[in-house]
Amino acid sequence: MKRTAKTITCTALGFLLLIISSGISLQAQDTITLDQCYQLAEQNYPLAEQIDLLAGSNELKIKNINKNWLPTINLNGQLSYQSDVTKVAIQLPAGLPPLDMPVLSKDWYKATLDVGQVIWDGNVTSYQKRLEEINLRVDQTSVQANLYKLKEQVNQFYFSIILLNQHEALLLSTRNQLEEKLKEVKAGIQYGAVLLSMADALEAEMIGLDQRLIETRADRTGLIRMLSELISFIVPEDAFLVMPDPGISDYTYQNNRLENTVFDLQRGKLELMQSMVTTKWNPKFLAFGQAGVGRPALNMLSNDFEPFYIVGLKLNWNPLNWNANKNEKKILGIQSDMVLTQQASFDKTLKIQAEKDLSEIMKTLDVIKQDHEIIALRERISQSASAQLSNGVITSSDYVTRLTEERQAKLSYEIHRVQLVKAKLDYLYNQGKLSYLKTIKE
Question: Which pTM does this prediction carry?
Answer without folding.
Answer: 0.80
